[in-house]
Amino acid sequence: xxxxxxxxxxxxxxxxxxxxxxxxxxxxxxxxxxxxxxxxxxxxxxxxxxxxxxxxxxxxxxxxxxxxxxxxxxxxxxxxxxxxxxxxxxxxxxxxxxxxxxxxxxxxxxxxxxxxxxxxxxxxxxxxxxxxxxxxxxxxxxxxxxxxxxxxxxxxxxxxxxxxxxxxxxxxxxxxxxxxxxxxxxxxxxxxxxxxxxxxxxxxxxxxxxxxxxxxxxxxxxxxxxxxxxxxxxxxxxxxxxxxxxxxxxxxxxxxxxxxxxxxxxxxxxxxxxxxxxxxxxxxxxxxxxxxxxxxxxxx
Length: 300
Fold this sequence. Notes:
Blueprint: E1 9-13, E2 28-31, H1 48-55, E3 59-64, E4 67-68, E5 80-82, H2 97-103, E6 108-112, H3 115-125, H4 135-144, H5 151-162, H6 167-178, H7 185-208, E7 212-214, E8 217-221, H8 231-239, E9 244-249, E10 252-257, H9 265-268, E11 273-274, E12 278-282, H10 286-299
Parallel strand pairs: 1-6, 2-3, 2-6, 3-5, 8-9
Antiparallel strand pairs: 4-11, 7-8, 9-10, 10-12
Helix pairs in contact: 3-6, 5-7, 6-7, 7-8
């Protein structure tokens, strides 16, 4: 058996929960992490800008595909490769062998903690080449929820959705992808986590029976003490009932529509950045948001 490939340091984050620059070693590449939206509490300056400033010359490349009002401010900086969700449904397809070679050696990869981000990290480690034929298509299908997803990617997606806070699982997924999809502890861990997803998905299906549909919106307020459920699954089930699904839980509201819906909640709700067809807002803003959504759908 060939030797396992040496990996750079791997760190995982979300747009609003970024690590301190000092905790990231050496030259850093950031993959699939959106700029923090200014319409949702502390915004770009206090979150994204702080990391960019802290990394300074150590920031080797920032590659992302989420909408944000400030993308244009970085158009003159070649380290930033920034697109919108409409331009690229997922991050890995942006990464090329030429980009990786031009960037040069990196010591740390900071990636979003979903499948899109982990596939991007694996592709970067592999010099800009897919970990398996069709991996870019899988990442796009998972991130947009459009098109066929291979059984392999479906398994990984389910594992991550059930254990999105497990850094060891994320490391193992990247290792599995980079090392040629070998059987072993990495694949076993993915399968075990995916089994947990099935239980959460079943709970989501039960909760979905309580959706209230009023015109173009399917709404559910998840009660305290509800069993663990997969929110993405619940939102998708809501979208089977109406154009827009709204899931309220613990003071926050998640709003989602199909990628092909033509809706842009980031612009409509003046959030400043994010994924156009899936956003989260404080519950106190929900009534105003739903009124805007109803109005724009009625006018279309």
